Amino acid sequence: MFDRITVQNNGKRIYDIVLEASFSHLGEEVSRLGVEKRKLCIVTDSNVAPLYLETVETQLQPICKKVDSFVFPAGEGQKNLDTVRELYRYLIQRQYDRNDVLVALGGGVVGDLCGYGAATYLRGIRFIQVPTTLLSQVDSSIGGKTGVDFDAFKNMVGAFHMPSLVYTNTATLHTLSEEQYLSGMGEILKHGLIKDRSYYDWIQEHAEKILRRDGETCGAMILESDKIKRDVVERDPTEKEERALLNFGHTLGHAIEKLMNFQMLHGQCVALGCVGAVYLSAKRGEIPMEEVERVCEDFVRFGLPVNLQDIKLQPEDILAATKKDKKMDSGTVKFILLHQVGDAFIDTTVSDQEILDTLWWMLRRTE
């Protein structure tokens, strides 16, 4: 399997997203960027390094001047300015200049942190995304959003900085835990809910193969999700309008993630936020209430949470946390709702009482 998607801006090619089931062509793809006289620094974490660092180094060493590696402890708690500072120090000590390149090898935490480091080191250097989790392969590696958390506020410090290449090895899915793998389905189901009813239905039809991590099926799924996100990013690269639709489920999801001190995976929190947004859409008469139950069943099928009973958070606390999200607009919560499955829209009129009612429904419901 080998697929290529090109990301453009105003008709001009920016970078390619390459998908295959190995790292076999990584060196070839990176060499297209003209790195033969450049240093490459692989940025990764302590979970991914033992699995893939040596293989990626072997691919990159023949095509460039030198390969270094910066490995930091795994976990969302490390995605902060202190770790970025250590990365800066590492690059300065090894005399990295504006023509050298960073390589983000890992999941969303690695990609976000490495991308932000690349955006800000020497006012911006190139970087490559090599995502190794399902969630990062369909979401965080695409589109140039980079950032780190600040005092438990998620992605509060960041920059838009497009990668020079996204190289996805779908075989890395087999080394993910079941929880990590299924977390990625939160973002994938979101793509279908906001943009493509037929894709959403296809996911349900192929659920058994997806749950088995069938290579061909997962490859087709990742490719379709990447195309959906690519198309949105091309039309709105800096989230002025349409790209905000990709935040479906994130208003409540980020609040829950923060209140849980990042002990829940991002995709799980997004799933909860999606369920809340679907329910609110139904309460406003946009979709039938039967559709809400169907979505809940679909999320449960992929091992994702659909109620608040197990996490012991109070609706009032979640509401308060939404007010501190970076997506606020002049004190107003931007909520993404559905006209129907596959057709999302931005709404700035959702009241605090509506949010509270939604959260109380999520607290009371059972699967």
Short description:
By secondary structure, the chain is α/β, with parallel strands linked by helices. The protein contains 14 helices and eleven strands.
Specify the helix fraction band. Answer: 40-55%
SSE order, one letter for each helix or strand: EEHEHEHEHEHEEEHHHHHHHHEEH
Using only C-alpha atoms, the radius of gyration works out to: 20 Å
Q: Please state the oligomeric state of the protein chains shown.
A: single chain
Main-sheet strand order equals 1-2-9-6-5-3-4
Helix-and-strand structural type: alpha/beta
The residue ranges in which pLDDT falls below 50 over 5 or more consecutive positions are none
Overview of this protein structure:
With 367 residues, this protein is an alpha/beta fold. It is 45% helix and 20% strand. Strands 1-2-9-6-5-3-4 form a 7-stranded mixed sheet, sandwiched between helices. The longest helix has 21 residues, at 215-235. The radius of gyration is 20 Å and the shape is globular. The mean pLDDT is 95.
Keywords, separated by commas or semicolons:
globular, 45% helix, 367 residues, alpha/beta, two-stranded antiparallel ribbon, 14 helices, seven-stranded mixed beta sheet
What's the layout of helices and strands?
Layout: E1 2-9, E2 12-20, H1 26-31, E3 39-45, H2 49-60, E4 66-72, H3 81-93, E5 101-106, H4 108-120, E6 126-131, H5 134-140, E7 145-150, E8 153-160, E9 165-169, H6 178-195, H7 197-205, H8 207-211, H9 215-235, H10 250-259, H11 266-283, H12 289-301, H13 315-322, E10 335-340, E11 343-347, H14 352-364
Parallel strand pairs: 2-9, 3-4, 3-5, 5-6, 6-9
Antiparallel strand pairs: 1-2, 7-8, 10-11
